[in-house]
Amino acid sequence: MNAVLSKIFIISGAVVMSGAMAMAQQSQPQQMPPVNSPSNNPAATPQAQQQMQMQEQQNTDMAAMQDKAFLRKAAEGGMAEVQLGQLAQQKASSQDVRQFGEKMVQDHSQLDQQLKPIAEQQGVRPPKALSKKDEATLKKLEGLSGQQFDHAYIEAMLKDHKKDLKEFKETANRTQNPQLKDAVQRGAQVIESHLQDIQQIARNHNVSEKGA
């Protein structure tokens, strides 16, 4: 009788231990497959790799288009600044306005020369004429004289240099072209200096910046 009871206890204990081990195994967290495993990394599949390459190419093409658009616009703006500066030298009644016009001719001619080889590499041709907007500004100023010319020229320069500085800084932060990035960073410094100069001239002539 005692032998039978002993066997029963031994069997019961084995059953309890096996059940406990099974529960412990179930409670352990399952190991996840490696993140970089081909089955869990879509980029590892040929189709995903092709999609990524296509997306990268699209981004590259878009960046190149933006660079070209900036270079084209910068060349047009530079041409306008030179012609308007020449007009200011001829028609301005105040010495500080005439001097600013002279500075525009010199500095923007240099800036255009810095951007020109980059534009040529990108297939951007120099503009043959002013944009319609700049042409309208030039004609308006040609019809003015004295203080009226000075005020209108100051207002135009305030507006243009605020816009140009924003575009140069945005391009410097965005472009992946190292030559263009270097050129626009240096160009932004020049334009910022121009903006500070024309803001001081505007204060001297009581020209408000609100409309600029």
Task: Describe it.
By secondary structure, the protein is mainly α. The protein has a domain at 63-204: Ferritin. Helix content is 78%, strand content 0%. The protein contains six helices and no strands. It has helices at 2-27, 46-91, 95-121, 132-142, 146-174, 178-204. Helix 2 (46-91) packs parallel to helix 4, helix 3 packs antiparallel against helix 6 (178-204) and helix 5 (146-174) packs antiparallel against helix 6 (178-204). Mean pLDDT is 84; it is low at 1-39.
What layout of secondary structure does this protein have?
Layout (H helix, E strand, L loop, with lengths): L1 H26 L18 H46 L3 H27 L10 H11 L3 H29 L3 H27 L8
Helix pairs in contact: 2-3, 2-4, 2-5, 3-6, 5-6
Number of strands: 0
Which overall shape is indicated by the principal axes computed on the Cα atoms? elongated
Number of H- or I-type helical stretches = 6
State the end-to-end distance.
Answer: 110 Å
**Helicity, in percent?**
over 70%
Overall mean pLDDT stands at: 84
Structural class: mainly alpha
- Rg, nearest Å: 36 Å
Name of the CATH class of one domain: Mainly Alpha
Main β sheet profile: none
CATH homology superfamily of one domain: Ferritin, core subunit, four-helix bundle
Assembly status:
single chain
| Element-level helix/strand string | HHHHHH
Task: Specify the CATH architecture of one domain.
Answer: Up-down Bundle
CATH topology value of one domain: Ferritin
Q: Classify the beta-strand content into a percent band.
A: under 5%
Unreliable spans are: 1-39
